[in-house]
Fold this sequence. Notes:
Layout: H1 2-11, H2 20-23, H3 68-72, H4 90-93, H5 103-107, H6 125-137, H7 148-159, H8 162-173, E1 181-186, E2 188-190, E3 192-195, E4 198-201, E5 207-209, E6 215-218, H9 221-225, E7 233-238, H10 241-251, H11 261-264, H12 282-293, H13 300-309, H14 314-325
Parallel strand pairs: 1-7
Antiparallel strand pairs: 2-5, 3-4, 6-7
Amino acid sequence: MRKAFAALAIMGMTAGVAPPAQAQSPAPAPTSAASFPAWAYPWVPDFKVAPADDVPRHVPDSDQSFTIAQERNLFFVPDWHPEDHPPMPDVVAHGRMPDVRACGSCHRAAGTGGPENASLAGLPAAYIIQQIEDYKSGARKFAGPQRSPSVVMTAIAKASNEDEIKSAAAYFASLKPKANIKVIETDTVPVTQIARVFYMQVKDGGTEPIGERIIETPVDAVQFEHRDTRSQFIAYVPKGSIARGEALAKTGGAGVTTPCITCHGPDLRGVAAIPGIAGRSPSYLVRQLYDFQQHARAGTAGAQMLPVVEKLSHDDMMSLAAYAASLTP
Length: 329
């Protein structure tokens, strides 16, 4: 376990972990379906990071090298695989000081994002633009704790101009979403720790009951912290979740909800300006369902989604997210 934390402490990224004395606090305990889903909003704000260094780092299948100092710079994007995407517009690659961080620094050069935020690859440009406008106006807020991805995203949106928003939206909409999440149904999961805003497995930490939660972790936490767009993830979900989610998505569950396929398409890959939800982070999806239900997302999408989510239990949300995440994007 010490080796795992040491590797991330040396990196000290924006999604880094506390040193062992602080980071050994366990992940949130399994929650009741009737309570706030704290597991979906991982947040350890008082983490500490090691000083940045200028030692070149590498990731698999890339001839590029970047330092931790570069990777921490939110006005710079470590582009490990430039062959995977077209040239990034300036707002994606560099942003604009002092408030418009480079979009790709958090959402990655190929728009893959991570469990802590959103994958933007392949989302309709009109949808992306509307979400930025909702952040600007305050129509899109957050029901959970004010985690750094939420706070930073709101600040960036408010500081961005029309040309920057349109340029970023067009770029991310042009990208092909990647299948990078393996969904596993299980009764037990590896013991995990919160690495500020996402979960990582504790080496030799054993297992624990999954309870009423989804645990989503990078396969290689250090590779993910390097912002490698080819990072892979595992999402552990309760047994039976995928089948329950499929039934809800296709039938609505006898009045529990509106079938997801009605708007998002039969394969949940989206229709016109309606975003695809297939293959997306289940942690992110649960946060959005809960935010809609709590009226935190009150924009155009919120008005459309509120009748859909108002009767959903947390078990329903987990099942829908598990099913959607298991599909090919």
